[in-house]
């Protein structure tokens, strides 16, 4: 690898890490009796193995509560053996302390949403559980009641689960949507259980999560591609706006690489949203845009000439229209590459990223937004 590639890799590494920090972390507090299926539910929605108990530092000094950091953008509250019913008073005391002491901290250090889990066929909902939910609400946490392991046949939930849900909602508890979310997190073919209700639960979580934590939630979750795409397009729009601002005073072709940091930031953020590992992302970025990796005037000029209206200013300047068109096309093409890579569609038979498939996927998507004639496409292919 040459010095230019090394320099690009370092630059992109810095941007990748910067965007990871900027996205932050979504912190979920999840409660329920032992064996209710909390870990299975988390694994199903976030696609991660739940962190081992006791990882990391206490949330606050002397606290028995921890935030277990799972991946880059998810935190799960670890209650260190404190259980609802058995240790309710102590647990609420600890939670009150955590909420108060983190309220003035950055949003990634705060608790955002609570899930309270009840097993669907338990048939009993204790008064102590209702009291705990009321106390969580008083602490300012949105509470979603999740019913786990609920059998469903022909679109109908098990009658016992329906009866239990009616009991819970009849208490007038301050719970999200005033309803219980029925779920099955893990298929059980032996008894005919199929996963269901997870998207409804995730949608409700998005609706009540703070705005500043929603991109982290989109990045952390593993079941809703549409939410990742929405947040990726927010990043594209922001980058387009920055490119327009950068070219408000037309940029000389010689300075066209001023757009590269904007595009690298956009690409790094989208990669973080799709949970792409750095090494894989860096390789994809290198393949997708020599203009960004090499930062050379010739590469940038060659690409910009292919945008309608740019050819007439060769050797002159780049205006806002060209800058925005190019950045938007780069963003949409990169989004396509990340979607397909995350789904394993750009790997070869050995499961290794296929450079040629990445190149083709990028070009096909780029050409959708910036119409390339055959000669221009051939030139761009050689550049990549």
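-> sequence recovered:
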């Amino acid at each position: 690898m040459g010095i230019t590639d090394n320099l690009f890799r370092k630059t992109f590494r810095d941007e990748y890490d910067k965007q990871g920090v900027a996205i932050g972390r979504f912190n979920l507090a999840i409660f329920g009796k032992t064996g209710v299926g909390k870990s299975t539910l988390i694994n199903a929605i976030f696609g991660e193995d739940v962190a081992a108990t006791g990882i990391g530092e206490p949330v606050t000094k002397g606290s028995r509560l921890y935030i277990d950091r799972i991946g880059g953008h998810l935190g799960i509250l670890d209650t260190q053996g404190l259980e609802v019913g058995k240790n309710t008073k102590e647990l609420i005391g600890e939670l009150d302390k955590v909420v108060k002491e983190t309220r003035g901290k950055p949003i990634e250090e705060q608790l955002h949403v609570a899930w309270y889990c009840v097993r669907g066929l338990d048939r009993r909902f204790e008064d102590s559980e209702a009291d705990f939910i009321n106390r969580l609400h008083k602490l300012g946490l949105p509470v979603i009641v999740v019913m786990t392991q609920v059998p469903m046949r022909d679109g109908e939930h098990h009658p016992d689960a329906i009866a239990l849900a009616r009991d819970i909602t009849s208490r007038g508890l301050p719970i999200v949507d005033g309803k219980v979310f029925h779920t099955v997190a893990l298929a059980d073919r032996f008894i005919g259980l199929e996963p269901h209700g997870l998207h409804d639960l995730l949608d409700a979580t998005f609706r009540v999560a703070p705005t500043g934590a929603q991109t982290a939630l989109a990045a952390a979750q593993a079941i809703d591609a549409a939410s990742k795409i929405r947040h990726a397009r927010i990043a594209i729009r922001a980058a387009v706006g920055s490119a327009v601002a950068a070219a408000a005073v037309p940029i000389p072709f010689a300075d066209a690489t001023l757009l590269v940091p904007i595009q690298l930031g956009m690409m790094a953020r989208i990669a973080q949203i799709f949970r792409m590992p750095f090494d894989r992302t860096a390789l994809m970025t290198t393949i997708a845009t020599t203009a960004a990796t090499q930062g050379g005037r010739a590469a940038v000029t060659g690409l910009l000439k292919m945008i309608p209206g740019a050819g007439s200013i060769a050797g002159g300047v780049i205006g806002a229209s060209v800058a925005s068109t190019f950045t938007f096309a780069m963003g949409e093409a990169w989004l396509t590459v990340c979607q397909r890579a995350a789904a394993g569609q750009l790997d070869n038979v050995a499961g290794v990223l296929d450079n040629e498939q990445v190149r083709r996927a990028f070009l096909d998507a780029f050409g959708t937004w910036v119409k390339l004639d055959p000669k221009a496409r051939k030139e761009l292919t050689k550049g990549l």
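Strands lie at 26-32, 66-70, 74-78, 113-119, 143-148, 152-153, 156-157, 180-182, 251-252, 317-318.
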